[in-house]
Amino acid sequence: MKKILFYLIFSLTLTGNVVFGQDRLRLDVDHTVAEVTPYMWGIFFEDINFGADGGFYAELVKNRSFEFYEPMMGWKEAKKREGEGKIFILKREQQKPANPTYLRIDSRSDKGLFGVVNEGFRGMGIRADEPYYFSVLGRQVGELRPEVLVELVSSKGEVLGSTTISGFSREWGKVEGSFTSSQTDAKATLRVLVNGKGIVDMDMISLFPENTWKNRKNGLRADLVQMLYDLHPGFLRFPGGCIVEGHDLSLRYQWKKTVGPVEEREMIVNRWNTEFMHRHTPDYYQSFGLGFFEYFLLAEDIGAEPLPILNCGMACQYNTGELVPLDELDPYIQDALDLIEFANGDITTKWGKLRAEMGHPKPFNLKFLGIGNEQWGEQYVERYKIFAEVIRQKHPEIVLVGGSGPKPEDERFHYLWKEMKDEEVDLMDEHYYMSPEWFLSNADRYDDYDRNGPKVFAGEYAAHGPDNDHPMSKNTWLSALSEAAFMTGLERNADVVNMASYAPLMAHIEAWQWRPDLIWFDNLNVVGTPNYYVQKLYSTLTGSEVLNITLDGQPLTGQNKLYASASKDIKEGKIYIKLVNASDNPKEVNVSINGGAKVSRNATAYLMTADDPLAFNTFENPQKVAPVQSEIKLKGKAIKETLQPMSFYVIEIDAKF
Ligand code: AHR
Predict the structure, then answer these.
(1) Residue 180 near residue 128 (C-beta atoms within 8 A)
(2) How high does pLDDT run on average in the chain?
(3) Taking the model in full, what pTM does it have?
(4) In this model, does residue 277 exceed pLDDT 90?
């Protein structure tokens, strides 16, 4: 009795809570259960929530080419400063079918400034002392050579930086300028003003920070790419999502229209623009400045395998569900073959040559290709078959990804699994947007999956709790913890589950359509959610071989609300143990490490927890729920730890095998 009392008091002092008993876990280090693919933990990118335009793609001017349905959306006439004039929208459809619309500024007074102002994507995020690069495609109309003043204006109306450009001629051509901003402002705007009399035609009015990711001209937002880089992702799936399918077929994603000179990439409306009435975003378009070449480059930069998903001849079945007749699928299949050539082909081939001209003569080494996104029904299987037959024959080296529909366990799902297995698809893309409870009770989902069928690509998943006011409040600690618990099941079954990615990836706090999301940003800042940090712990502390970690001989899939998985990396000399305590109470675990490996006396523990399961990160408190690193001591070949309530631990042990 005395002993029990002592134990209770001791436990209470450690954690402030009562520890109930001890769970004795056994880790077997000698026996490898499965290999983990080097591309196991990846990312899913879709242009949703202002992910590309207004997000990753660092262009600051919205509707730079005046191709929005309302050509002046994002633009207005600038307040007159003595100047006088008129603004016109013109079209040159025959010469420039992909980008016909342009702006004419007809400045009619000898003195003063007349022109337009662009509002940016919910303003322009500008940083003090940083250089900005302005460019425009333009020409002079009439006799007078126009002089154009470009001004970056703060939210308070002060000029933060400016440049004067005057290199226009009668032929269309690029005119450039640059300046440095004197202040930081999240809501700046851009004025483009003709000084004095003159007529100038303008298209592709553009402003980029010079400090982009890898300082690439007209590149990607460095802080956002850094977040991806830090994940060490195994693959990059792009360009989505439903965006691949389109609301109807005319609005499907067509990769060929996203490569080559940006001014020739035909802009289309973003399908998320009007998808949800409560999150209407009428100014959401796809400029394709972030197109397939840039996606491949991004994948290469962050060390990820590129995984493009192509339209299979079906529009989104939640929208029109339009189908391409089977005997008219050829252009779609040709797109797939040409994409392989674009990515991997010799520079003497048509598409390989374009890749080289765009600056990447070396192949991108494409290995994976997805046929269709979230399709269902026999129409999908029929189309997949036709694609697969041709691709298998011409490119047997390509790993094909097929879909299993939008839900993890309905009739459509079971039908597709059966059919696609018969088709011997390599990977089946499964999607689950489910409750945290579902994730907690499905950690054993793959334990009994067929080991001889297609492998699984958990291509889109996220735990969805109830709706709340704050946009980021669906990214609760509870949701992240339940994903961490579920992911022990993915890791344990790495022989079946070869790839996994959370979805969606990004959201602009002022322009989102879908939540929860892995990363939130505004025009200047970025925040990792608790879910992001869970992904990061998995993707950066990954072994190459799965080990057995058991309680009473059974894998931990939620008994006593405990979850676990383990892995080792012989080359790196590491053992990783992942432990989730999903209960409200602390839990003492004793993990005995069995086998021939010599383990270090100290290990590193990465702990995530929060007092409140509904806690979430914000711009004001971005690290509220984030991993905390500490050192723990092993007792011989055992780890004794009191796991905090509602906690996720990764324990990293140095080992000699
Ligand atoms: O991730 C958001 C959407 O969810 C994807 O576009 C689609 O594939 C799924 O329905």
Answers:
(1) no
(2) 95
(3) 0.95
(4) no
